[in-house]
Amino acid sequence: MVLEPTEPQKAFLAEVTRFAQDVVAPRAASIDESGAYPIDVMRQAAARGLLGITIPQAWGGLGLDYVSYALAIEAISRASSTVGVSLVVHHSLVADILAHAGRTAQKDQWLRRLASGEAIGAFALSEPAAGTDAANQQTRAERTARGYRMTGRKVWVANADAASVAIVFACTRAGVRGQGVTAFLVPMDTPGISRTARADSLGVRGLGCMDLDFDVEVSDDQVLGSVDQGFRLAMWALQGGRVGVAAQALGIGEAAIAEAIAFAKVRETFGQPIARYEAIQWMLADVATELEAARMLTWKAADAKDRQERSRAESSMAKLAASEAAHRATDRAMQIMASEGYRRGSTIERLFRDVRATEIYQGTSEAQRLIIAQELLADA
Ligand SMILES: Cc1cc2nc3c(=O)[nH]c(=O)nc-3n(C[C@H](O)[C@H](O)[C@H](O)COP(=O)(O)OP(=O)(O)OC[C@H]3O[C@@H](n4cnc5c(N)ncnc54)[C@H](O)[C@@H]3O)c2cc1C
Hints:
- The structure is a single chain.
- Helix 6 packs parallel to helix 8 and helix 6 packs antiparallel against helix 9.
- A four-stranded mixed beta sheet has the order 1-4-5-8.
- A hairpin with a 3-residue loop joins strand 2 and strand 3.
- By secondary structure, it is α+β, with helices and mostly antiparallel strands.
- The protein is built from ten helices and ten strands.
- It has three domains: 114 residues, Orthogonal Bundle (Butyryl-Coa Dehydrogenase, subunit A, domain 1), CATH 1.10.540; 109 residues, Beta Barrel (Butyryl-CoA Dehydrogenase, subunit A, domain 2); 145 residues, Butyryl-CoA Dehydrogenase, subunit A, domain 3 (Up-down Bundle), CATH 1.20.140.10.
- The model has no long low-confidence stretch (mean pLDDT 97).
- The chain binds flavin-adenine dinucleotide.
- The site of flavin-adenine dinucleotide has 24 residues, from strand 1, strand 3 and helix 10.
């Protein structure tokens, strides 16, 4: 058993870490402050191939494994978790689905552009009444002579502000929930898409989240995978996405611990640095241990995906453990930094806000526990 990345994975991580430190980190505070999608950073990521990390080389991507991807997302999220999760949506929820289920013409049209960064992808599953209950799709795609007419509303669509294409899920067979949902590849400039609102948020600001109203015509060529089988595709993609969100959470947690350590070494009370107090040391030891345990789960889930093993429980465990460990890490770091951390505009204040979303999107912590329990009880 080897519990560390291979030499090529380490070399890729070193390259991505340099990019994260030189390009992403200096923009993190301004992305948060403005709430504007960081298209400049994404273009620079694209120039380094980082919009095609997992996309096969045949379609212009780097063709790397999921462990490399998880390492990259952690390093980038340590600098800016907004950039990190934007890349997770683009890769796990859009490019991976296309590579897995797309027809050659669809890959030719979109996968190459996603790999080069010419196009950014979005994933539109959630609706006002379909969040955790994602099978309760109210968006309808009804048969017409030329294809389908799709009508409905999607909410919290990350990357929508900058995306050229979205994978949109719609009900094609009523009354059977997840058995009657189809995935469609929809260019964002299709007539009939209204970007109704830009969702403002507590954290991961700048993710380009929008609510979208659809009244569009789509052709049979835009069906991704098979008709009525789209919900399976969404659930498959979310398994990869959860590895990405776990990696994002690890990056946030690591950044919080680093902030707290740097502070604890220089802040003195009663004539000595607070790092000398056991109360502070124990907080650091606990969160570092939890984060490292979550990292092992994340690598395990990524490795299982690389081996094409069934990893439904593993990816949920990774996301659950990493998001909750990172939440505690930012909370303890805030405690260690006290008023300095609580100051609006401090790095820890941003991390504290950013981490919360990792327990909500791509399935809440309760949804992850339900999935893990379903897997545990499958044969009971
Ligand atoms: C920043 C951000 C970005 C997002 N990006 C995207 C995106 O790109 N694409 C997309 O499609 N969606 C996206 N979402 C939506 C996200 O996936 C949903 O918010 C999430 O799945 C939870 O759904 P909900 O908010 O409707 O909560 P609800 O489903 O209304 O849940 C409310 C509460 O009830 C709990 N709950 C619900 N059902 C159960 C149950 N059976 N057992 C126990 N507890 C339960 C939940 O855990 C939660 O605590 C994003 C959300 C955010 C905040």
